[in-house]
Amino acid sequence: MAKKKSEQIGTDDAVILMFLNLVEENGIEIPITLSVSGAVISGTLINASTYYAEITESSKLPNTTISKIMYKNFSDLKEAYAKQKQEEADKEAKKNSLTFIHLKDVKYLSTGVQPTPSSSNWWRGRISSIDGFSFDSLV
After folding, report:
1. Which of 53, 105, 107, 124 could be a cystine partner for 139, CB 3.0 to 4.6 Å?
2. pLDDT per residue over 50-77, tens digit each?
3. Pick from 37, 39, 11: nearest CA to 101
4. b/e code 104-113 from CB counts within 10 Å (16+ = b)
């Protein structure tokens, strides 16, 4: 059966799913390094609720019109995520329904070069894009 192009695909890697479920259910944070399409990304694995809460808070720091707009938009995303998670819980979503991974304190790594802090402390990516991982931080 062919998958629809718009369908989001997770992963069947039992190890990463186990850790993602621990993070999502218990709110623990785990240092992690990912290989994604040749890039190496290191940071702290956090749950989606923490990601949305912290990115919403960080968007309101400067008191400018754009920061107010961003804060409103991130707040709306946070509320939509909470509603979606409640609907999934009500429907008893499948175990492998996770499609995104969330990191904070992100650094991008290149061979022979010092770790480069990202312009943002937050990173969100598709789980299906992960080529490899280790549960430690290289920075």
Report:
1. 107
2. 988 888 777 666 667 777 787 788 888 8
3. 11
4. bbbbbbeeee
How far apart (Å, rounded) are the C-alpha atoms in residues 109 and 118? Answer: 10
CA distances from 136 to 15, 33, 101 (A): 14, 6, 16
DSSP conformation class of 127? G
Tokens of 88: 């999934």
DSSP assignments along 18-82, one per residue: HHHHHHHHH---EEEEEEETTEEEEEEEE-HHHHHHHHHHHHTSS-SHHHHHHHHHHHHHHHHHH
Q: Which residue has the tokens 């621990």?
A: 22
Which two three-digit tokens encode residue 119? 């312009």
- Read off φ and ψ for residue 78, nearest 5 degrees: -60, -45
CB atoms within 10 A of CB 60: 15
